């Protein structure tokens, strides 16, 4: 009688293993599908390199300035787009028009700062674990706006 239960145990064990593999496979497929639907591909790099992200300015919402050429821009020097960082606090550095107000938005927080008289800015922000899409909006004294977006991935996993 003992020998008749052994094949059933093997079949049960095989069914559990195949079910687990199928479940992990489907979960991985859904995660990959969700990541592929994002606008920006995620390819983390092991080091943070200085980068320059310049964004074309948006026209002013003020009809009086609508015909004027908008030279307002924002440049993000660091961190580099698609950076992989091991710390939840990140310094955002760059430059824009002198005295401009900056709104820095993360998935969970919003920060308000301003550029100095030379147009430089440097502020520390907190990011969440995982992928963080950061948006920096700059508004100058003529109410012209420029926007920069980039991705930072925060992970404490050893690579």
What is the compact description of this entry?
The chain is an alpha+beta fold and 159 residues long. 22% of the residues lie in helices and 35% in strands. The protein is built from 1 helix and 9 strands; from the N terminus they run αβββββββββ.
Report on this model:
It is a single chain. 22% of the residues lie in helices and 35% in strands. The chain is of the alpha+beta class. The chain folds into two domains: 1-37; 53-154, Immunoglobulins (Immunoglobulin-like), CATH 2.60.40. β5 (101-105) and β6 form a beta hairpin. Mean pLDDT is 76; it is low at 38-54 and 56-69. The strands form two sheets. It has a five-stranded mixed β-sheet with strand order 3-9-8-5-6, with no helix packed on it. A four-stranded antiparallel β-sheet has the order 1-2-4-7, with no helix packed on it. It contains one helix and nine strands, in the order αβββββββββ. It has one helix at 2-36; strands at residues 53-55, 74-78, 83-85, 89-96, 101-105, 110-114, 120-126, 130-139, 145-154.
What's the tally of helices?
Answer: 1
Radius of gyration: 24 Å
Give the helix/strand class.
alpha+beta
Major sheet, described briefly?
5 strands, mixed
Low-confidence stretches: 38-54, 56-69
Approximate strand percentage: 35-45%
Query: CATH class of the largest domain, please?
Result: Mainly Beta
């Amino acid at each position: 009688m003992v020998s008749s239960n052994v094949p059933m145990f093997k079949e049960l064990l095989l069914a559990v293993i195949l079910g687990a593999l199928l479940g992990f496979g489907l979960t991985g497929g859904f995660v990959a599908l969700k990541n592929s639907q994002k606008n920006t591909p995620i390819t983390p790099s092991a080091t943070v390199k200085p980068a320059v992200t310049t964004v074309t300015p948006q026209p002013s919402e003020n009809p009086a300035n609508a015909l004027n050429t908008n030279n307002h821009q924002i440049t993000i020097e660091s961190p580099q787009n698609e950076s992989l960082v091991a710390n939840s606090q990140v310094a955002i550095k760059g430059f824009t028009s002198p005295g401009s107000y900056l709104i820095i938005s993360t998935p969970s927080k919003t920060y308000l700062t301003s550029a100095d008289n030379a147009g430089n800015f440097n502020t520390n922000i907190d990011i969440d674990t995982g992928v963080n899409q950061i948006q920096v909006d700059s508004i100058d004294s003529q109410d012209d706006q420029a926007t920069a977006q980039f991705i930072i991935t925060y992970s404490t996993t050893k690579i």
